[in-house]
Amino acid sequence: MNHPATSKDQILEASLKLAAAEGFSALNMRRIAETCKVSVGCVYRYFPDKSDLMIAVVGKVWEQIFSKDGSESLRSDFRGSLRWVFSCIQSGCTAYPSFFQHHAAILADADPDRSREVMDQYLSRIQQLLLDALCKDPDVRQDAFDDSFTRESLVQFLFENLLELGMRQGKDCSYLLALTERLIYQR
């Protein structure tokens, strides 16, 4: 027998399961209350409106996508870190079909500033991981970067393209890895 959800985390977990099974359009306060076997008022206690709920759910999805094992061991291997990020994106596409394509629409009615803040929190964490790995990778040419071609701009470019590949359900990121290899690694 399922126990009623009585905490914010339990309501979020139920929301994630519902979104994974039926899509984000299935998320509304009444449906989540039914899924959790609680009153609608209980859901509103933790999430004053649907906007708050959707922002929390999208943030949790980003968190889950990039919580896959391996991030710690890749911090000094930039190529491995790129593969890890792409693998996380692919797993996220499987767990939450069309999330990447529609996450902006999912948040359309939510507070745009808060929505962007939540999304940026997770995405900047991953970009920072990539930047750290790039800076620590001993195989990167010391003269590869300058004022017009910075480490930060390369990381942003690669990360955006990894996300795009994931959205298009690309099977691998070998092209981006080959490009990176030619641009910044010693031959």
Structure explained in plain terms:
The chain has 187 residues and is mainly alpha-helical. It has 2 domains: 8-48, Homeodomain-like (Arc Repressor Mutant, subunit A), CATH 1.10.10; 60-184. 67% of the residues lie in helices and 0% in strands. The protein has 9 helices and no strands. It has helices spanning 8-22, 29-36, 40-46, 50-65, 78-95, 99-106, 112-136, 151-167, 174-184. Helix 1 (8-22) packs across helix 2, helix 4 runs parallel beside helix 7 (112-136) and helix 5 (78-95) packs parallel to helix 8 (151-167). The radius of gyration is 19 Å and the shape is elongated. It starts with 7 loop residues before the first helix and ends with a helix.
Number of helices: 9
Please, how many domains? 2
Average pLDDT, to the nearest integer? 86
Shape: elongated
Structure class: mainly alpha
Report on the biggest sheet: none
Please tell me how large the radius of gyration is: 19 Å
Number of strands: 0
Order of helices and strands: HHHHHHHHH
The helix content, as a percent range, equals 55-70%
Spans of at least 5 consecutive residues with low confidence = none
**Cα separation of the termini:** 61 Å
Strand content: under 5%
